[in-house]
Description:
Shape of chain A: globular
Mean pLDDT of chain B: 86
Helix content of chain A: over 70%
Order of helices and strands of chain A: HHEEHHHHHHHHHHHHHHHHHHHHH
Strand content of chain A: under 5%
Number of domains of chain B: 1
Number of strands of chain A: 2
Distance between the termini of chain B: 28 Å
Order of helices and strands of chain B: HHHEEHHHHHHHHHHHHHHHHHH
Oligomer: heterodimer
Mean pLDDT of chain A: 87
Amino acid sequence: MTTLTTWIVTLTVFQPLISAAIIALLPQAEKRLVRGWTFLSMFMNFGLTVLLYGLFDPKGPEFQLEQRLQWISDLGISYHVGVDGLAVSLMLLTGFLGPLVVLASWTSIENRVKSFHLALLLIQSAMLGTLASLDVILFYVFFEAMLVPMYLIIGMWGSEKRIQAAMKFFLYTLAGSLVMLVAILAVYFLAQPSGTRSFDYAAFYNSLAPANRELAACLAGKAASCASMSPLAKALGVYGPWMFLAFAVAFAIKVPMFPVHTWLPDAHTEAPVAGSIILAGVMLKMGTFGFWRYAIPLFPVAAQQMRVAFAVLAVVGIVYGAMMCLAQTDVKRLIAYSSVSHLGFCMLGIFALTAEGAAGSAYQMLNHGVSTGALFLLFGFLYERRHTRNIIDFGGVARTMPVFAALFLIITFSSIAVPGTNGFIGEFLVLLGTFKSTKVPMWLAVLATSGVILSAAYMLWIVQRVFFGPVVQVENARLRDVNGRELATSLPFVVMVLVMGVLPGFFLDRLETSTRRYVARAQVGLDVQQRDEDTRVTVLPLSSPTPVAALPAGTSDQR
Amino acid sequence: MLTLPTLTSTDFLPLWPALILSAGACLVLLSEVFLSSASRSFQPLLTVIATVLGALVAAATVFSVPTGVFGGFVVLDPFGSLVSLVICIGVGLSALLAPAFLRGRQAERGEFYALLLFGGAGMSLLVLSNELIFLFINLEILSIATYALAAYLRRGPRPAEAGFKYFILGAFSSAVLLYGAALLFGATRSTLLPQMGAELARIFTDPTLSDRQPLAYCGLALIGAGFGFKIAAVPFHMWTPDVYEGAPTPVTAMMSAAVKAAAFAAMVRVFLVLGRGIPGDALLTGFSTLAFLTMIGGNLLALPQRNVKRMLAYSSISHAGYLLVGVASLFVKSGTTKGGVLGVTALAAGATPDTAGALRGILFYLLAYTVTTVGAFGVLGALERRDDEVRGFAWDLDRLAGLAQRKPAWAVAMAVFMLSLGGIPPMAGFMGKLLIFRSAVDAGLVGLVIVGVLTSAVGAYYYLRVVVYMYMRPAPEAGGLPERNLSTELALVLSTVAVVVLGVLPGITGTWLSRGGSVFLGR
């Protein structure tokens, strides 16, 4: 049992990679075999994430199922993986989407099938690794490693402007994360001025937290505490905002927040169905996850100082994304902009700093993965039949494809947060948290609420234009309804929408500890932290504490 | 007067790699004279064996006790041994690329391999040189071999242009370096680096010797400029694209990997040993400026290139810039609170600079860059055809179009090299950059590191463009592919594996490189 709990995370992360190695050995021509094997591996991976989710104890410590091994020991980099409530939930989402993505592209990908599935499996490993990393460099490596297969998926199997979109996606994200790398290095030296340094998350957080407290006390007006601040707290006062911004920009690009969202409509629109589902379903969450895990807990004071600015940007994203949706003529672009709007809710919840806001934000991350993933999937079915993305090319589709229309409508309800669907729970909690928040102005919450109305407007309007009305184009009269495979791919989404809408407690339980810890950590910057919450991260010692071979005696440093 | 030191067997220890490489070169030359052309096909194999033996010997000396030999002219230290090892790897991989390339151009002759090995011998001696005249001689040995190699394919205007340009500018830079050495000799009355360092310290502290200070500064600046040419740092980079483009591709691989590693190591040694006595931030400012210009210049100039070989030449300039960031971080003095070209250094105020860490970073970067760049030039060389070279589009991006369908394995290898050059994890290039930037941030050169990461993002664009052509563009109709060649493919496999392994498990070099970084003789 202990072996299982030690290795389960590693196994989940690397199982797709091992399957990819096997794919690489299969012959190029065996398309069915490649597809079947990938589906099977993804399904096994889903099983592993379910097992992981089950093994995670909602009442247990914050980080569970940890494993820490030597990696690059002389730089203080270790292979440290483990999950908290948010990570394990997002890993479940990643695992859930995996097999469905393979099914979704069963017939739409016909050329270079082997490379495509290789890329899918690689990206799966990288995404799971990003979520499971508890070492900052390990996180960075996985975070960047996601880019290359995604770039290939967009660039090799996308539509007309795919190369441009892939390049934009890659360069945007890379530029952001490289700036973050500088901040990571700066924290590494700043927070650990002497002794053995480490890139471990616990080391980063635990060394910064006391300094952040001192600084927050000083900024809160306790003048006496300013004089006695430690050098680290003083340095955080000067460089903290810059380092926070370096982290925040990297993650804001990934989310994407207004105004660095411009890569997203292109990437989503040009990507093949599988690429859009993965991008919207999981990859965007790496941004919100990054804020939640790294940017805000490490620099709560700086985050406080910029909170209103980020909350304003989040609300601008909500409203602007929704307005852009109303103006789109291209279905995929519309869904892409709706992501900007929905992720705005996640960011607002994160910056509201209330338990409800944070829980709603976390729940919204899961919801968005399910509902937007499903929207891209369902539109993918239509695109395969009609090969057009223009809204005006459709109309009256409900007459020829009634089952499809029903599926689409349910997902639409989830997307516009109709009670009884998952979207309602998430958006409601976020708005509740924002209204309760004393630190985010009330008018922002009011504006954000208008986003809910706008989303109903654009989603219902597109449903009306695509599914109802007269059949204008003859092609639409000859459409066949969804087949068995397509139904099998979309039903899990519908089930999830309803289950998450009716039984939110099951999922929120596992998010609880991590939400509470997040809020407590972020409140360090407010100097109003609840007394009973210990924000420190438990340090896991290396499992094999053998240091690197020391220099042979007698040949010591001769400088 | 002149007393010859008695030579012991330890004195020859550092020379073994050079001796083995030279012996290999002599064997190749002898076989050229005495054997018929049909029975000389073992020459590449002989070359590779010589480099492998050289590498093994160099590796064996890493853990021997560091000493100065030949009256201090030559040092045996782990830093030098490790760079020799990198040089042997670079020369060996380049030699593996040569047979197919030369056969395609009916230019299979032993001189090529002999020159390669003689150049390698010069390089491995250069990094061990601890005396300016000895250093200059070794620099010339390697340079002359490389001039000849650059112009090796005599037919056609490009090789002649490349060889001539390289020779003129190389000779010019050698002269600049020699002039600097002469001025420094004038100031310090010595050519042995440690003695010069001590004397320089005296010059800068003793007020009665202050009239020698201008001489010392001029000498150092000229030596720096001379090395600047050799490592292709902006603004001394003008020759690089033309020479890299015109030279036979295996030679370009050797130049951008081994020659660059040797020149960098020699430069680091000279300035580390001399720099001890130089006050203030003179060296830090100098190297930071050079790094700043080189990173920006190299990346911006590479951006518009459609010619992949020229792009790789500019990319090699930009990588010299990243290495120079590591070199600059060697010269941050403890207690320095400001300095560096951008003035953002207050992070590590008062901390002791971690020279060992910076040296280790440089060593790792040299190793990672060597395996990557040789591989990249290897793929390119295998794809070019003689008749296209004359018209100049042998290295156009179109040449790589659709490579993923035509030669999937090569496309994967090239993509790995491009990602590594772009510093994308989990490739070796990322770990190299991480190590270099780590020591630079430690030294407080945050401004320089920010420039470094931003230019890396620029760099990703042109490296990815190669991937775009290989994976996302259709193959041309008439795309003749070279026939399979065992040695080329061996070189590509070895470099690809090395790039990935160094990227995923950089720790395997840990003990070696940290020894190379911490045990540096002569300071």
